[in-house]
Write a structure and sequence with these properties.
about 350 residues, globular, mainly alpha, about 60% helix
């Protein structure tokens, strides 16, 4: 009798790492295009340069470890790390800044722990925090968005090349850049929110000019990843919901001590990039759905605290790294119940 060969009913077709990373890169395209439109060609220049550095560092380390280079480069994890880091740093960043951050993310943040799947911290955020702490002047030099500065064209592209090459004097760079909406709001202690919005051209109806559309583009890309089931909704929902609750509780009205509305915090800084592309990293986040929600909740709380009372205008990167350290503990207390047992088995069974 001929037996019918059939897979088990509980077996699912697993997507390869390469396919997942390609989906992530495709989902980042709307945010990339909007960022280039509002903040200039420097965004694209940094992205290309960071990708070259990341792939080169990845190949070098893999060769030193005597592993097959082509096999490991085809998973595109290094490219995703480079793109996320490049999108997080200012478009006016010089070439050496991107070089330091990207190489640190790949060599130290990823391969020091054993490579893909072994790293404790998110590599892109580790590289970003290194740059933010070591080079605060360069990391705060954000160009004003389109609508605040003059339109883009050939001159804007040439300026981006000069910024990338580091050939623009510091005093000229200071005149070209300005603080982000998050930084302006955090430093405000005299104007009401209505006066601040009316007196500063960087603000728009919801958040900051350019920033709100960039965040909405990342929201669009993240929603597509949710539709493709690349990750679950738990971590992004935990982060965004908690940020909204915190912003509502500490809103402070329209006075000078106002800290911004929930919509402002959702559409400012790296909120949507972090919620859908950073904290959903399956390696450095929690494993269970309940754990992911707790993980995202912690990031939302820490991000708002750092933004409002900390020393940095945007706390997404710091919040992610802090919760990366807490992820093993979250996993320990949120393990799902093993089939046939009333409670999860968190340790070795005691021998009689």
């Amino acid at each position: 009798m001929t037996l019918i060969r059939q897979t088990s009913p509980h077996t699912l077709k697993a997507s390869s790492t390469q396919a997942i990373m390609l989906n992530v890169l495709m989902a980042l395209i709307p945010g990339l295009l909007v960022s280039v439109y509002f903040f200039g060609w420097g965004v694209l220049i940094n992205l290309v340069w960071a990708s070259i550095v990341a792939v080169s560092c990845e190949a070098l380390v893999i060769k030193l470890r005597k592993r097959p280079i082509r096999f490991f480069l085809q998973d595109y994890t290094a490219v995703v790390t480079a793109v996320l880091l490049a999108l997080a740093i200012p478009p006016s960043a010089p070439w050496w800044l991107t070089l330091i951050g990207t190489s640190f993310a790949i060599i130290i943040g990823k391969h020091l722990y054993g490579g893909m799947g072994q790293n404790i911290f998110n590599p892109a955020m580790l590289g970003y925090v290194l740059l933010l702490i070591s080079f605060p002047l360069e990391m705060s030099a954000w160009l004003p968005a389109l609508g605040v500065r003059e339109g883009q064209g050939v001159l804007d592209f040439m300026t981006s090349i000069q910024l990338f090459a580091g050939s623009v004097p510091v005093n000229t760079l200071d005149a070209m850049t300005m603080a982000t909406p998050l930084d302006i709001l955090r430093e405000n202690n005299s104007l009401t929110l209505e006066e601040l919005w009316a007196s500063n051209p960087v603000f728009s109806s919801w958040a900051g000019k350019g920033w709100q559309w960039v965040n909405l583009a990342y929201l669009l890309g993240g929603s597509w990843l949710l539709y493709k089931r690349v990750f679950t909704w738990h971590a992004p929902a935990g982060m965004l919901l908690t940020m909204a609750i915190m912003a509502t509780l500490f809103y402070g009205g329209e006075g000078s001590n106002g800290h911004g509305s929930p919509l402002f915090h959702w559409l400012s800084g790296a909120t949507m990039l972090g919620a859908f592309f950073i904290i959903t990293d399956p390696v450095t986040s929690a494993a269970s759905n309940k754990g992911r929600f707790i993980f995202g909740t912690g990031i939302g709380i820490l991000t708002y605290i750092i933004r409002t009372w900390g020393g940095y205008p945007d706390g997404v990167a710091f919040a992610v790294l802090l919760m990366n350290m807490a992820a093993p503990t979250i996993d320990y207390y949120t393990q799902p119940r093993t089939y046939g047992h009333k409670k999860p088995n968190r340790g070795l069974a005691k021998l009689d």
